[in-house]
Write a sequence for this structure.
């Protein structure tokens, strides 16, 4: 098919990334990301992996401001 | 490809975390400090409790501590954002990278923060009974999951309805489905009100057995700052990541090569 360069769009319709390519990433990298959010949001609060409350106190202000229940 | 997107999402999240830290330090800390002053006043001056030793000083909490939290949160949300983007890119009609990222940013902010917030708003220190922290966290997380699941369902529904109803009406129907689902959640989920309130005879009962009322304007400014922080985070992530993803996925040189190949 002939296309006129003056009206041809610079970018083709976006091509979706196949499920088999992103599924493992969502599962494994997603768990890591959720773990990070957990440490800011709930560790040494509702539940605890480490004992004490130093981590809780350290991220205290951001836990309140990002909207997680804290006290 | 997905790895490249993930790195870009985390970088956008890092920048968002830095901007979020500056925002939170400027606009969030004043109400946090007042709330902590209120807490101290009630515990030490009103109830004459013995003073506690600070594990982490207020200076550290409001600077390095706050920065650690916002940076980690920004990077994590940015990473998740990139992963969800990888799964949705090319599946939202003709939306290209920047448009997809902008739409995901709006939907993400709504589903992950705003809608759960309306039922269970962010609270400053001294609001919330420490005894109920597990219960409050549990219902908040369940609300969060319900909201995210409903939003994923609504987007999938929109894609299915497009062919029959057109883009505009399909979007309205999907939005209606999300609003309906969350309306049911709002009605079914338990109400939580733990803002300290002294009893006013024939007006309100005491809340959390408080004999001192938490100052309402401090609560208001804290919650506005909390919303503002999320706006800064989500806006930065979606706009910066959109630009980075466009360069990766829709680089004109790459697209030109593709056209040459298909013409041969």
């Amino acid at each position: 098919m002939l296309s006129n360069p003056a009206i041809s769009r610079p970018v083709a319709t976006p091509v979706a990334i196949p499920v088999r390519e992103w599924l493992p990433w969502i599962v494994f990298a997603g768990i890591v990301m959720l773990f990070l959010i957990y440490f800011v949001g709930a560790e040494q609060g509702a539940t605890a992996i480490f004992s004490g409350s130093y981590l809780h106190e350290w991220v205290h202000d951001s836990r309140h401001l990002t909207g997680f229940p804290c006290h | 490809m997905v790895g490249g997107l993930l790195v870009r999402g985390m970088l956008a999240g890092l920048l968002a975390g830095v901007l979020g830290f500056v925002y939170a330090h400027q606009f969030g800390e004043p109400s946090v400090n007042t709330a902590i002053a209120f807490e101290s006043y009630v515990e030490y001056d009103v109830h004459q409790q013995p003073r506690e030793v600070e594990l982490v000083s207020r200076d550290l909490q409001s600077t390095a501590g706050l920065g650690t939290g916002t940076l980690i949160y920004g990077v994590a949300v940015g990473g998740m954002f990139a992963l969800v983007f990888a799964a949705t890119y090319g599946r939202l009609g003709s939306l290209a990278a920047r448009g997809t990222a902008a739409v995901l940013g709006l939907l993400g902010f709504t589903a992950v923060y705003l809608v759960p917030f309306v039922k269970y708003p962010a609270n400053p220190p001294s609001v919330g009974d420490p005894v109920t922290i597990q219960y409050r966290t549990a219902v908040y997380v369940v609300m969060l999951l319900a909201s995210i699941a409903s939003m994923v369902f609504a987007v999938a529904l929109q894609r299915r309805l497009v062919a029959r109803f057109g883009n505009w009406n399909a979007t309205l129907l999907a939005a209606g489905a999300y609003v309906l689902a969350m309306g049911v959640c709002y009605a079914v989920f338990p109400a939580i009100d733990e803002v300290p309130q002294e009893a006013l005879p024939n007006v309100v009962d005491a809340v959390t057995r408080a004999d001192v009322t938490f100052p309402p304007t401090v609560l208001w400014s804290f919650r506005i700052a909390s919303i503002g922080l999320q706006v800064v985070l989500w806006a930065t992530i979606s706009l910066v990541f959109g630009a980075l993803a466009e360069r990766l996925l829709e680089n004109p040189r790459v697209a030109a090569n593709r056209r040459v190949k298909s013409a041969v």
Summary: Chain B touches chain A through 71 residues (CB under 8 Å). Chain B has six helices and no strands.
